[in-house]
Fold each of these.
Amino acid sequence: MAATTATTRLDAHALRADFPFLEELVNGLPMAYLDSAVSTQKPRQVLDAISDFYKHSYTNAHRSVYRLAERATEGYEGARRKVAAFVNAPSEREVIFTRSATEALNLVAYAWGFDNLGPGDIVVVTELEHHSNFVPWQYIASRTGASFRHIPIDDAGELRLDVLDSLASEGSVKVVANNIVSNSLGTINPVEKLTAWAHEQGAIMVVDAAQAAPHRSVDVQALGCDFLAFSSHKLCGPSGVGALWGRAELLEAMSPFNLGGEMIRSVALDKTTFNELPYKFEAGTPAIAEAYGFGVAIDYISEIGLDAIEAHEHELVVYTMERLAELDFVRVFGPPADRRAGIVSFEVAGIHPHDVAQILDWEGIAVRAGHHCTQPLMTRLGVTATTRASFYVYSIPDEVDRLIAGLHKVKKSLG
Amino acid sequence: MSEFEQLYREVILDHYKSPRNHGLLEPHDAFAEGQNPLCGDEVAVSVRFGDGDVIEEVGFEGRGCAISQAATSMLTEIVKGRTATEVATMQKDELLDEIGIPLTPVRLKCAILGLGVLKVALHRAKGTPLPEEWGTSSNEISLS
């Protein structure tokens, strides 16, 4: 369902003026930053907004009655409204600020998993999961005695839904955890189908949108899922803050995750009552300015338009895969361009990704070399690591050309 | 000298393309394998002792970047004929001097992977000290 029919286009060359990191030259050229899947660079609009917030509106949120405290609280809660609208959440009470998408997924695994999983139950993840939506479930399954199963991929890097019936026959499926977009291969997963299947089993659907929300529109009501996690730093916002959306009735019924200040209604020596949503899950001073910056980043990318971003990245992926196909010493992993997001993972024959990335770095090209926090997937692909190029609003075809030239150099040097 | 020539010295490329003491020994007296979780480099090392705890034969296998594999190859040449105790207390600088290239902190982990794995193998066989960075942690998730 790639949006090749964009009505709006983004002008990457114009947007590049927003990004100060491009002003720093390497060998006379701006860095070809092809690692936006790991984290995106930040536009001036976000950087300035955070700085202004600290200068003019900063103190702790939800604490005091003076005007500054009101501004700080409004900045923080305004960001929550933006996050809620961004994923079409029915209510902002269902949006919990966390430290990261990882913490959001841990929150669900701990606070829902410990009370609802036990022997005979099955937790289903996929071979494409990032460790953040894999290891917490593996851990909670082992602690509660539940079984831990996975949906494998086919040779194109797409989920094999034909195994679902056999998984369902093994016991009571209670959790299905999947990402919308694979951070390693860029595969776009059939989350709506999986959600429908999860609900048929009486399971909850936990969606990792960390690699999707920055790049395509995400709508929790259209997906029909129960929980959805994503982070600020992958969509032009600051690091240190992420968000969990969850269905209010599930969040209400769940035990707290972190305990302490802010998450309480009343505390006595013999009894503590917890606060209402979303504060029940936000113990301690949150990342206030970062949450504010998260909201500004959402404004920034929403103004560009998620459909335009998706179309822009699709064009870059098509171009990258065409250019890589010219190189007989390069093998690309994952599905064809029309079924993947803005990520291209590949290997250079006989040369380890670390060496590839090292030589590309000398050309001012930043790519990721590693297992991308998906070791089970690397095992499935029969590699220890891959080299990955990924894109965002500031990425341009010229950077892909530099990558291709760099790969020729890699081959010449080490091949 | 270019950046490439500094890091990928002739000797590194030679060891990478023609690793010494390649292949695991069967039978062996000591064995360990390890990964560099950052990038997924893998090294397995096997050892046969001669008199006492003198390392008579050492063989390795691995998958990984040029630095990790070349460094392990060079290491096997250094440690032959030394005792397990000598190798267990060997400083990483001795290996790094031999490698002789400027390494960033990330690449340093690649370079000393083989040394760490070898020390673990010796620890298991002879009770020599473990390298600090490997600790004694055996935490893992085991599923029912």
Amino acid sequence: MEYYIGLITMSAIQALLGLSVYVTVLAGRVSFGQHGFALIGGYMAGVATAVWGWHLAPALVLGMLASGLVGLVVGYPALRIRGVYLAVASVAFAEICRNVVQNLFYYRQEVVGGLVRKIGPVGHEGFRHISYFYDHGFTREMVMGVILGVLALTTLVVWVLDRSQLGRRLRAISEDELAAQTAGINVAWLTTLAFGLGAAIAGLSGGLYAHYLTFASHETFTILMGVLAVAYVLVGGTANVVGPLLGVAFFTAITEGLRPLQEYRVIIYGALIVAAMLVRPYGIIDHKLLVRLRQWATFLPRAKVRAEARVDATR
Amino acid sequence: MLRVESLTKQFGGLVALSGVDLTLEGGRIMGLIGPNGSGKTTLINTVTGVFPPTAGRVYLGDLDITPLPAHRRARLGIARTFQNVKLWTRLTVWENLWIVSQPSHRRLPGLGPDRQRERRLAEILAWVGLWERRNDLAGSLSFGEQRRLELARALAAEPRVLLLDEPAAGLSMGELEDLTRFLEQLRAQGLAILLVEHVLELVMNIADRIAVLNFGHKIAEGTPDQVREDPQVQEAYLGMRKRSAQPAGEPDDARP
Amino acid sequence: MWLDLVQQGISGFLVGSTYALIAIGFTMVWGVMRRLNLAYGAAALGAAYVGFWIYRLAPDLTPAILVLAAMGSGIVIGFLMDLVCFRWLPKEYELAPLASTLGALIIAEEVINLRTEGYPVSFPEIVDKVFYVGRLYFRLDHIVIFGACMVMVAGLYYLLFRTRLGLAIRGVSQQVVAAQLMGMNPNKTNAITFMLTGMLAGAAGALSVMAIGTGTSALAMTFTLRGLSAAVIGGLGSIPGAIVGGLALGIIEAEALRVFGIGYRDVFTNLALLAILVFRPQGLMGVRLAQ
């Protein structure tokens, strides 16, 4: 039971990071460096609770603000970069984050049971004793509950965003930027916004991760993490917010199903990605499937197009 | 309504437009013809703001819009269609229009559905005959339907100026008649229309005035009859006809 | 101070030649297929390891066997990668092969990890000499690598510009449809491109690891990042660019190490990369592309 709680909690955190990739993919940009923003959010939120004594919620918000702000700042020059170049740039950015954090020292000292503890980022050693959950008596079930709750809320927000005019415009930008520009869509502003939003969500994921592990360092936010986040979205499908969630579920289910092969877990991840691209290159939920699903579930409104708005054709 | 003064556009060593003057008036259709490579699409691109001109200015009414970026010009009422249909294929027909349109005036957002705006878009869709297809992905439309959607999308932004880049290419006779009818109705509504076309029958039939470009220069302007008689125009086209059939049109996003 | 600068510059320059080899692989696949093979660095390391395991069967022979075996396995790995990550995926969608090569990268790195149980592996040295010119010292093995790289690049150029095969590759890279009409088979040329770059990867990987001395699975990511950065700095699609980019990256890295120390070296290198991407995305020698 313990084991499954841990599994679900980790999956939820991964799913959050996947959602952050999804938001930037909406604008047509694939960022492999979201773990960099997660790192920023994690450290920021950790400092807030462990060093300054804040409560979790405002701390997480602060983490989101910090990473979101960096996302906006970084997103603007990134406008001109797309595709492959952005992939490289995003990884370079995340690497910079990881390196900077290795040189960061900001801690207070505490004596616990005769031993001196350093609470805060301690350069290369990382950031230990992010013990908010432990100090406030959260059980593992409660932590899982909190994280699942945050995931549900974020999914809802992203879903609403996706269906809104903003979301549809982002998709238009990703498909044909020139047409969008000449049709009156402010491409620069919307894309930067999407970047900032994705970064904020990544920061949220990082903040929760840091508190869950009670530890954060340049080694907990690895390139593999950033890469897998993208994989979840690409495998699950970019047509709908459910895509990244499906991606995470898919990966988790298969690795769990192949539990006796635990030590090959990472290879299985890689193989899953390769296999998924061979079988469904556009993801599990691609646009065509989405349309067909909507046709079945006709009680779900497609867009608010009311029948009474129809006017007889003048043809 | 839309005025272009001494418009010049140079790409490195290539002069695509050179000192072009043009005026579009509301309720009139101005045809723009010329051999391939004469700068027709470049003109549209410069007017809509895809790239800045090397020299010259663009005026919308009294406003000098030359320094404005593309999306601002669109908001001010300039719309265009593309030679190669540039729809958002992964969005539905309805969404293609919706994201281009603006919320109705004097409305507070979030107070329930914007019925005025929906009605407007529904009218446009019905007018081009795509209402039944409103929930289908734009990518699933036939070629003729996509052309109509391009036009509808341009209209969804409530433009005052409409720039059409070879809308007749690839259309059947019946579709051509529909297009002619659409254009006449749009003209009657007071839009200023620029019609760039190779299909000369359409242009000669429907345009009030025609301008002719060749190698980036405007070599003639006048009524269809005047242009038809103009010796310079004939020579430009004759020269082209001698070189036999060429692939149609210049690329839309002709950039260096 | 000047001595240090020049010294670091020289060793950076020499090390940069290995980056250049890997960069050439990235840039060629990009040039021919407009796609990025993210697993290329891992392939280089994988080929190096296979070469090592083959070498271990007869360690009394010269270490050159390692390099040759690595090149051979690189050819095979390259072919497989083309098949699984590119040929069987839709041509118009660039994200699918991107994800797929990522998967391959993950697989390759982990396979090495498991096979060696996470322990670093000692690779034999190429040569163990160092010599001095005035007060500057040169590592002979680095010079050998540099020389080997130049030889391979020369060979590559000969292939691309003096043979029919090379013509086919260049033709397909510039105009796929026209090339097809002329009877060139893009699938075949792509496969050959992959096998060629695989061979280069094997050589680059083997030589690099031998120069470093020990192999670990983490090198896969290092090779990938360095090689990709070098290719981007020099300009994707340009082979001279890849060479220049690799050498430049080597120098930048070495100088950054000297000035900033190991802590901030990578920050500086990455910032340099970002600067290039933002201000001159076509790289130092690339042609302005419409993206």
